[in-house]
Amino acid sequence: MSNTIAHPDSGYSGISENSIRHALTVDVEDWPQSSLDHSLPITERAVTNTRSMLELFQEYHVQGTFFVLGLLAEKFPDVVKEIADAGHEIGTHGYSHKPVFEIGPDAFADELIRSKKLLEDISGTEVRGYRAPDFSITEDSLWALDILAEHGMSYDSSIMPVKMRRYGIDGYPRRIHRLPNGLTEVPLSTIPFAGRRWPVAGGGYLRLYPLSVTVHAINRLQSQAQPAIVYLHPYELDATEMREFRPRMPYRTRLSQGLNRRFVAQRLRRLFDDFHFAPLQEVITDHVDSTQSVEFSCVSSS
Ligand SMILES: [Zn+2]
User: Fold this and answer.
1) Distance, CA 291 to ligand 1 centroid (Å)?
2) Sign of dihedral through CA atoms 111, 114, 116, 119?
3) Above 70 in pLDDT, residue 1?
4) What backbone torsions phi and psi does residue 231 show, to the nearest 5 degrees?
5) Domains of the chain
């Protein structure tokens, strides 16, 4: 790779042993509806971006898990079918993209049932995995894990095991583990550094950190026999979207949601070259001993 002073990925030197499979996950949604205003309609742009992501994955023969928002599936069922037909796992991202801790248990259960049925009817496959909008299963909404188990889900991947501004739980276990209710929890990836945990390998963290940081983090997880949980959104391949919303958006939001989108595709190509990826359901079978059960307590565990 040719390094330039301006390029955020300067210094990349990722060489990996390719010894374990990491999870490749995509939250399928439309950025304005999910991040600016939940009352906005889902637009065709979300479909175009999802197809771009499918083409990129196809080019590298990688398969992942697509957590699809119910509202998007309802309006654009064809793209859900395309995802499933390409061999990817379909999971649910809820129905409306409203945070779990805001909607409460009854609406959460309704959204789960509605989105699961919708996605199963369209894809013809069983939906077993859930990811909350904005990682909104927090200490205030841990009840959601029991509702997921009650409705036949086999895993959840919604908990950031470090407290961030809007989400996360300090001290939550970092590794994939089985809960007493039978559900498997797949926390988002973090690495300990300088006395705290740092989220790595997904979304804004993948865009904002230089690629060398992400590669180092995945190698570090791999050296501990932990899979990275890479997560993406189709809109992160869309480098021009931010310009259209510029007048309506605070600078901070524009920065966190839009910065470095133009580098996402090439970063993914480097990761696909250097690491093995698989759908989350397959990664779970690589890492969870069916007899293992962990109950969360507030004692820090790394
Ligand atoms: Zn989302």
Assistant:
1) 32
2) negative
3) no
4) -130, 145
5) 21-287 (3.20.20.370)
